[in-house]
């Protein structure tokens, strides 16, 4: 990696009395094109992110392959995928490009307006409800910032350069990544009044076993804290689904009891469409909402402004938790 940077750095030195060697800048753009095409699996997507047409992207990739004397990408009409040589090259240059970005960020540290493409991954429901509707404030403040938003509940590859920042709902982990807490994530047991009228309200954790419980397939246990301390309850869901959004809609419709995040059901709790069950029990508090990004010496301005923006929106006392009924 450092050999690559050193080689390009030597190319960048201008001859005495001449303008800088702009061929070096062109070579770096070729590397960026290849990196984005590999990460996204699409020439057209890479072109959109870099402000280039698909034809230009294809031409420059062919030029890069010709210069290196090796095929980097296998192309079909719909997707591109790296060859073995291309994957090895990508793994090397993506770190080099990150270091170049860091150096540029350090030089432009006094800048106040973020620019360039910022690739962000956000959980589907949380992004749709709490991030996307509020992006106007970020774009108004930084009109030259281009956002690429991926709504996904998968843990996308940050180190490999697939995204710059991922918003994740998780417990802290030692992953080598930087995680900035944006907000707490309260989770409460709740059900619709109609369900409780038909089946009654449980008074103890043990009585949950007599009720229709609803949980997604990845929610194999409810980690709860209450007067007796921390406990793990394994719900047997009445309906199988891999979708948290499906569980939410089933709970609201009166099908059963679920453990839901307050950011997801705060409106229904306030309106009375949902009622808390066993209010002295909540989901364990180690789970939070975090902005996660690769560990770097210099964090690019575009990442910093996004995190500051989200912290300003949410923070330790997020708006969705205000004035919730007990």
Kindly report the spatial arrangement of strands forming the biggest sheet. 4-3-5-14-6
CATH superfamily of the largest domain: Winged helix-like DNA-binding domain superfamily/Winged helix DNA-binding domain
Tell me the total number of β-strands.
14
Structural class: alpha+beta
Walk me through the structure.
With 326 residues, the protein is of the alpha+beta class. The chain folds into three domains: 2-107, Arc Repressor Mutant, subunit A (Orthogonal Bundle), CATH 1.10.10; 116-183 and 287-317, D-Maltodextrin-Binding Protein, domain 2, CATH 3.40.190; 187-283, D-Maltodextrin-Binding Protein, domain 2, CATH 3.40.190.290. The chain has eleven helices and 14 strands. The chain has helices at residues 2-12, 22-40, 43-50, 54-68, 84-107, 124-131, 135-141, 193-199, 244-252, 262-271, 301-313, and strands at residues 73-75, 80-82, 116-122, 145-151, 165-170, 177-184, 187-191, 213-214, 222-226, 229-233, 257-261, 275-276, 282-283, 288-294. It has a five-stranded mixed beta sheet. A hairpin with a 4-residue loop joins strand 1 (73-75) and strand 2. Helix 2 (22-40) packs across helix 5 (84-107) and helix 3 crosses helix 4. Mean pLDDT is 85; it is low at 1-24.
């Amino acid at each position: 990696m450092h050999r690559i940077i050193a080689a390009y750095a030597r190319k960048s030195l201008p001859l005495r009395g001449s303008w800088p060697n702009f061929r070096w800048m062109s070579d770096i753009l070729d590397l960026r094109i290849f990196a984005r095409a590999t990460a996204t699996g699409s020439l057209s997507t890479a072109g959109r992110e870099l402000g280039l047409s698909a034809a230009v992207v294809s031409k420059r990739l062919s030029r890069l392959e010709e210069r290196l004397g090796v095929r980097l990408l296998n192309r079909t009409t719909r997707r591109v995928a790296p060859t073995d040589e291309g994957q090895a090259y990508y793994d090397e240059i993506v770190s080099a490009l990150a270091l170049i970005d860091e150096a540029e960020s350090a030089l432009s540290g006094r800048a106040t307006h973020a620019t360039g493409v910022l690739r962000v991954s956000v959980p589907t429901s949380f992004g749709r409800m709490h991030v996307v509707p509020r992006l106007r404030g970020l774009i108004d403040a930084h009109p030259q910032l281009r956002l690429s938003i991926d709504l996904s509940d998968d843990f996308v590859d940050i180190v490999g350069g697939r995204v710059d920042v991922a918003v994740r709902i998780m417990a802290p982990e030692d992953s080598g990544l930087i995680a900035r807490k944006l907000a707490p994530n309260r989770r409460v047991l709740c059900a619709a009044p109609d369900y409780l009228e038909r089946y009654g309200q449980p008074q103890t954790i043990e009585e949950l076993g007599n009720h229709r419980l609803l949980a997604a397939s990845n929610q194999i246990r409810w980690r709860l804290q209450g007067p007796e301390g921390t406990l793990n309850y394994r719900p047997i869901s009445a309906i199988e689904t891999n979708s948290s959004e499906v569980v939410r809609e089933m709970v609201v419709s009166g099908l059963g009891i679920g453990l839901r995040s307050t950011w997801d059901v705060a409106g229904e709790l306030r309106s009375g469409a949902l009622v808390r069950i066993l209010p002295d029990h909540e989901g364990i508090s180690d789970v939070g909402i975090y902005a996660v990004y690769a560990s770097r010496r210099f964090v690019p301005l575009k990442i910093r402004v996004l995190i500051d923006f989200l912290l300003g929106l949410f923070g330790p006392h997020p708006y969705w938790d205000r004035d919730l009924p007990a």
